[in-house]
Amino acid sequence: MTEESTGDVVRGERFSGGPARGFLSSLAGDERIFDADLAVDRAHVVMLAEQGVIDDDEAGEILGALDAVEQAGHGALPDGEDVHEAIEAAVIDSIGAVGGKMHTARSRNDEVATCIRYRLREDVLALVETALELRSALVDVAAEHTETVMPGYTHLQPAQPTTVAHYLLSYASALERDTERLFDAYERVNQSPLGAAAFAGTPFPVDRDRVATLLGFDGVIENSTDASATRDFLIETTGAAATLATTLSGLAEDLIVFSNKGLVALSDAYSSTSSIMPQKKNPDTMELVRASAGDASAGLNGLLTILKGLPRAYNRDLQRAHPKAFEAVDAVTEATEVAAGAVATAEWQEAALEAAADEGFSTATGVADLLAMAGLPFRTAHEIVALAARRAAERTSGEAASQASEQGADYEAVAAAAAEVLDDPLEEYVSPEAVEEALDPVHSVAMRDSFGGPAPDSTEAAIVRARSRLVEARNDLDAYTDAIGAANDLLEDEVTAYV
Ligand code: ARG
Q: Is residue 452 domain-resident?
């Protein structure tokens, strides 16, 4: 079509051509909402017929034309400003002027808002699905490693021994909240704006609830201006995705650091090599997972910036908003899936983990706890153990400070430090055997059996609870998916009655 002959079916000659045509058009990107738009059109047409706004025959003709549009696919659509206009043009092309009745009692403003929600809800569920896969991988691997001790870090410095199970469960817990945030977002995404028209409602006797039911929405957005204008659901969804991506980025970073220390081996399938250094095995997948938090945060910032200060009601800026959410959700879904695979297949290096577990005198806190349990004020206990650590470091004089700090302390060192601080010998408080035990990482972990702590008994109980919450989340996910499926069937049945 040349620019002079633009006269498109939908808008006639008015504003239909010009140099900014491509700039205005969202048609290419709208492929993502092509199916959504067909569903929205169908539900709207069925409702119009039920309400007597159009005849059943007219509805049948329009619905038949929509089937043909679907068959031909998005690529066959005529040129247009967006998918909504192009589908309408294709319908009118195929059945003539009666096709123009499809757009009665609505506007592209409520139409596009509905399409975005209709599509995004599926994407949210797909993201939840991958988050559940990752949770399940974390919990399954944790179950194999409730007794595998490893160094726990703060400030990336050895801090206290923990177990691989406890470490992995910490991410499973975070992902539970990430899943809940996505479900929460889903509830507000899955509301129908249709029937709001441009923003100010319509004089036609539309049944907004009926359309919502036919499209599987849980309700309608009441205020028609709010319904067309708001994109807060995009911010919320992208925010939830970005939060999940932040969780993922921490996990990815840990796996990069741990594989660098030889504590975990990523499977080859999740590693990459160098094009020049043949010996290299690099954790590239985890680096890309870490980077996906950047994509998500970029999307969130883009959205907030586009939406900030927009006047009511519709503004074309909105056309640039939802792609940000789709891109962010895609990036995070892919990264979550990869993280799930990497976690499921990584091999924790038990011997290296155990050897590293008491590096940097990381059992010191446990020894201080032991002395405090024997009746010393914790502050005094802390002082004794700190002194023992310092003496142990001094014993290795001449070596670099970092190496010295890696030197552990034994019973003698603790007893000597106690003699400097206490009036009575250490044995008045605790036996040498008890101190030796506290210095052992395996025992140290087993002692910390508080609720949610790393002792094998505690983590085994935590795994049982995590598994049952995983089952609940799967049931919720299935219920949402089934509700969408049921609505699709209902709409299909209703449409079939007319064509
Ligand atoms: N394609 C537009 C969007 O994505 C919807 C069209 C509404 N256009 C308008 N000029 N009111 O937001």
A: no
